[in-house]
Amino acid sequence: MASISEVDITKPVEEIHPRNLQETHKDVIVHAFKQLVDHSRPSKGNGDITQGIHGSAHSRLPWLHELVPQLESLADKYHVGNFVAIRGTTQRFFESMPIYARLGMHLLFHGHEQAKLLEGNRHVEDLLKEQSIREGKIFDSPESVKNIPSFVKTYNIQLDELHEPDIHKYNTFNEFFYRRLKHGARPVENGDDSRGFCSAADSRLVVYQTVDLGEKFWIKGDEFSVPSLLGLDPTDPHCQTLNGGSLAIFRLAPADYHRFHSPIDGTVIGEPRDIPGQYYTVNPQAVNQPNLDVFTRNKRSVLLLEHEVSKQPVAVVAIGALLVGSIVWTYDKQVKRGDEIGYFAYGGSTLVAVFPPGVIKFDDDLVKNSIGEGPAAAGKEAIETLMKVGYSLGKIPDA
Asked: I want to staple 347 with a disulfide (CB 3.0 to 4.6 A). Which of 203, 215, 298, 323 is the partner?
């Protein structure tokens, strides 16, 4: 999705609500969502990724607007998406929401049956899972390479920073999606300071010194807790150590480099634990919904590491999302800050790092943006910060 700067915002940002598409029957939304996935196939979308799921909520797709005419009036009335702060500046930009995420959220938040849809209607959950798996198969097919040039152009991918910059050497779209960077492309800030922590992903980031602050400013789902996120009994020793700790939430958009890295120097503890779950969108407007906790409902995988300096456990939770096919771990037993530890196959997705209480003091600018006091936030509006792998995340607090 092309982003537009704040100065171009002349309409209000939409707060997702069922009434904004109330004239369109839910079954029509379902059909449109399936057609968006279908248009991911080059034979259907002619290799133009913006004709399918990569179209923004402001796109004028003739076939889609024939199905859902209300989308045009919605785009005329609102900007659909989220603001993101640019680190090191007082600026922010507006990131348009992918149209598939907008339709997916409508299915979840539909009308007066919202609670029933979230808690008891398996049809919507099955649909999102089915189409997520289908999308992964489409992007694993040999013909999907025809989408790569359009993807590079749409998202302005910097080919010169890739380990393999020749797009014709990738066998599938997914291979390009989880592309590697060349050595040195993401240097670790303050790498010689053993007290430091670094960003784990190219992402949009919020940080909270305590879980309570995270629930106050960002994660509104009433089911969220560290034990539920980790899929552990509250009496588990690691869970007890991490409970009430600090959270760093890295949201990866489709355009982002989708390999993720260790935020700490440490040692891997045991094996990753896969937790089955749903395929809800991880867009901030879904995370901010009080009746839905996407982090503890979605498919995820948990890796525990022992921090080299504090000797405390740190959890890295890779969370799948709508249209995300898989989570793959690639770590070595011993890791240094900035070392690759895994990647996501297609889709926007999220990584959550959980630190024990008192182990990390997040950088002040990240904290201020996350609670709405940074210069790029409007008043008390919590806002994500645009990050790259290796950027400073924080330090061990002074004794």
From this structure: 323
